[in-house]
Amino acid sequence: MKPAPFAYAKARSLTHAVDLLTQEDSRLLAGGQSLIATLNMRLSQPALLVDINGIDGLGGIALKVGQLEIGALTRHAQAERSAEVARHAPLIALAMPHIGHPAIRNRGTIGGSLAFADPAAELPACFLAVGGEADINGPQGPRTVKADDFFKGLFETALTPRDVLTAIRVPAANADTRVGFAEFARRHGDYAMVGLAACARADGARLADLRLAYFGVGPMPLRARNAETALARGDIDAAVAALRNDLDPPDDIQATGAVKRHLAGVLLRRVAKQLMEARS
Ligand SMILES: Cc1cc2nc3c(=O)[nH]c(=O)nc-3n(C[C@H](O)[C@H](O)[C@H](O)COP(=O)(O)OP(=O)(O)OC[C@H]3O[C@@H](n4cnc5c(N)ncnc54)[C@H](O)[C@@H]3O)c2cc1C
């Protein structure tokens, strides 16, 4: 199918983009890997596409005061190949190869992935697991939203239709940082049936500040807080059992909720093992 007719504007600056987005029925265009498909299927029919690809300063990866800042227009492929991401955001580096295929990663952006907030997507869960922050600019000026407050529901985030996500910031990893990532997908590169992104701080033999973020099990990435408490004590069996209170995955075309809950436990055992291993 072809999209319904729309107008197109190339934003010259962030201010210009925010200004254009105040127009009725406008929609921001980044990598287009999700948006263009929804237009072609006529799931969405905006009157105006606001292209942010020409705006300087929305890309780039930089270490700033203990945080790694990743510009919203950074392509998945750039993050995948970045030495800074590998060193300072190892969880994101682990997840990158699971996002679609190289052609999608060449165009798709970090900002687009978070703004779209597909419940089965890898990056939103990583962002939640590391406790990142989103920098947003809109008609009321800039603001920052913490990952715990960013996801609101199915494909819903703290972004309004008038906002531009400009960058994400994640705490820079250090020698004590432990991360784990695993997912089940029907084929490599597919959206996950169930996935788990995790981050913690090694405190002797224990794990402190543990955050387990599941994806593909609900309307948005979800923390498994009861399992976090049990796993922080080092009790993997209790952590797997606690998932019963943390997750209630609905049936979908991929699997029943019961199968997804079982897979969530299998992933937890794999990820727990990764978390216990020291970084090389
Ligand atoms: C075949 C296929 C397989 C894929 N598989 C996976 C997968 O396994 N895992 C995965 O995570 N993703 C997957 N994707 C999606 C891919 O990661 C997309 O790149 C991503 O979801 C959207 O990023 P984008 O830059 O292309 O955004 P776009 O498609 O341009 O935009 C998506 C939405 O986000 C909004 N938006 C984009 N950027 C911003 C911003 N800076 N501020 C505010 N709003 C913004 C747009 O207005 C739009 O509503 C797949 C895509 C395809 C086509």
Short summary:
The protein is α+β, with helices and mostly antiparallel strands and 280 residues long.
Structure notes:
- With 280 residues, the chain is an alpha+beta fold.
- 34% of the residues lie in helices and 27% in strands.
- The strands form 4 sheets. Strands 4-5-10-6-7 form a 5-stranded antiparallel β-sheet.
- The protein starts with 6 loop residues before the first strand and ends with a helix.
- 45% of the residues are buried.
- Flavin-adenine dinucleotide is lined by residues 27-35, 37, 72, 99-100, 104, 108-109, 111-113, 115-116, 118, 121-123, 159, 163-165, 189-191.
Q: Quick one: how many beta strands? A: 14
As a whole number of angstroms, the C-alpha radius of gyration is 19 Å
Order of helices and strands: EHEHEEEHHHHHHEEHEEEEEEEHHH
Count of helices?
12
| Structural class label | alpha+beta
- Alpha carbon gap, first and last residue: 49 Å
The low-pLDDT segments are none
Strand order of the largest sheet: 4-5-10-6-7
How would you describe the shape? Answer: globular
Mean pLDDT: 96
SS strand fraction: 25-35%
Helix content: 25-40%
Key structural traits:
single chain, 280 residues, alpha+beta, five-stranded antiparallel sheet, four-stranded antiparallel sheet, 14 strands, globular
